[in-house]
Amino acid sequence: MRSIAKIMTTASQxxxxxxxxxxxxxxxxxxxxxxxxxxxxxxxxVVDIAEGRGGSVADLMxxxxxxxxxxxxxxxxxxxxxxxxxxMSVRLRTILSTSYYRKLLRLPQRxxxxxxxxxxxSRLNRSITSITDFLQIFANGFFPTVVTLLxxxxxxxxxxxxxxxxxxxxxPTFVWLTALTSRKWQVWEKQKNDxxxxxxxxxxxxxxxxxVVKSFVTERREADSFxxxxxxxxxxxxxxxxxxxxxxxxxxxxxxVVFFVIYAIIFWQTATGQYSVGTMVLLIQLTSMARxxxxxMSYWVDATQRAVAGSLExxxxxxxxxxxxxxxxxxxxxxxxxxxxxxxxxxxxxxxxYSDSDELVLRGxxxxxxxxxxxxxxxxxxxxxxxxVNLIMKLYPVTAGVVRVHGQSVAEVPTAALRREVGVVxxxxxxxxxxxxxxxxxxxxxxTDEQLETAARRANASGFxxxxxxxxxxxxxxxxxxxxxxxxxxLSVARALLKDAPILILDxxxxxxxxxxxxxxxxxxxxxxxxxTTLIIAHRLSxxxxxxxxxxxxxxxxxxxxxxxxxxxxxxxxxxxxxLQGATSKADKAKL
Length: 592
Ligand code: ADP
Ligand code: MG
Description:
Elements: H1 2-10, H2 15-50, H3 57-106, H4 109-113, H5 117-159, H6 161-208, H7 210-215, H8 219-271, H9 277-318, E1 345-352, E2 362-369, E3 374-379, H10 385-392, E4 400-405, E5 408-409, H11 415-420, E6 422-425, H12 436-440, H13 449-458, H14 462-467, H15 485-499, E7 503-507, H16 515-529, E8 533-537, E9 549-554, E10 557-562, H17 564-567, H18 573-591
Parallel strand pairs: 3-8, 3-9, 6-7, 7-8
Antiparallel strand pairs: 1-2, 1-4, 4-5, 9-10
Helix pairs in contact: 1-9, 2-3, 2-5, 2-9, 3-5, 5-6, 5-9, 6-8, 6-9, 8-9, 13-15
This protein binds adenosine-5'-diphosphate and magnesium ion.
Magnesium ion binds at residues 385-386, 427, 507.
Protein name: ABC transporter ATP-binding protein
Domain ABC transporter: 345-580
Family: Belongs to the ABC transporter superfamily. Siderophore-Fe(3+) uptake transporter (SIUT) (TC 3.A.1.21) family.
């Protein structure tokens, strides 16, 4: 319940709406309570007329009109309250979803390494729906019921205290029993949700990688596994439903017995002349009104527990610790006073592991990169090259040691300022749906056509962009699926060029290009690397022959540092690769 209260305070600006909904609901039930009184009065009038004790038909007609007025008022209030209820729900959903999204944008990269997109979405939807449902049910069910019950208790106490006593005893008992039994129900609910989360996660992954599914012909397997999760959920739902309905059956039967006693009391008291026929009608109607909530009570208990679970799930994410100094919430910093004297990038005794339990991926890294230097990283795949450049952007916190940029520890520099210093071409191009223009200008303000064209030309992308139907306005599909690997890479290079950052990181940026395009991109980059500090990760050694220094990584450690010429003769990784690639390129030439 605390978590629900926390939700309500999260969206505390909605209090006028909560209040409107509650007032509406209370007014609805208050007007509904008038009807039995009017009918009781009418009954007594009819009896009086029949027994010749006065009373007039005109009075009866007025009572009928009164019934109409009450009914009209009731339906007007119901609908007005319904409108406020809808607005409250949708506003609450907006607030909760937006805060959740903002939270996700602030979480560290590590969180995303361990979660499936679809699962995140499935959980978010469920928790928000459970919370808004809960509020709706409470506003429209709980408060009116409390009003009705209180009124019924007071009125019956006046005529027949025994009936009030019975009602006072059964309600708490029923709430208690329902809450008790629904624990079991909740366990099933949790298992069911796990199935939905897992299949939801898989679902979005499969949709996103349909080519792989098609090429491995795994359609049937994916469909079956999806179906299996849903079938397991069906089994659980059946269990829930059987349990729920058998409980409900007991509940209703017990209630029937209680009401048998209540009616017997009413009939007996009327027959012995303790009150009029009209009062009997009144009491029967009022107690029937009190009976209804008992049957819906189990829905409230379910809704409450679901909302408790949903809000706990919600806060499981909301209470996670943000990436330190995340740009979304941090005060905007224009420029950090970077020092020009220090090395541009410095690794000082850095150890790094992706999680505390995993083996270290980088060990004892010491490295200084000077202004304007071009450095290449060479090493086997999985050797930690990408990891190393990730640390410069502070995508993960180091396990030990310090990474500095312009002499300042990245841990302490405002994140936005740090990341603005770095232009990066990711290993997997990483584009978004939308147009080429939108992708190239991602994260930038206004970009002129001229700037776009220059960047495209330097990245050797003008050729293919020019041949597209809508040129810069061509839609490239989710993650750029409509482009070839090489085209994506060139676009990604162009995007990094436009960012115009002092540090440029190229993580196998040209690996999908043929030799000719690679040369062309290289030529464009040459000019651009002028005056910038550039880190290049490449496996084609021809692309890095002109760098200032090469750093080779082996099993997470720096193996060698030297100029290409120096390392060519040491017999290390670079020399080995050089020999290998020299041999293959000679073989290629021989084929030609
Ligand atoms: P390289 O770029 O040199 O090919 P990476 O830096 O990508 O190598 O990976 C180095 C090691 O770290 C690999 O063993 C890989 O399995 C591991 N690794 C990479 N990314 C992650 C991650 N997000 N979570 C856990 N381990 C990772
Ligand atoms: Mg890599």
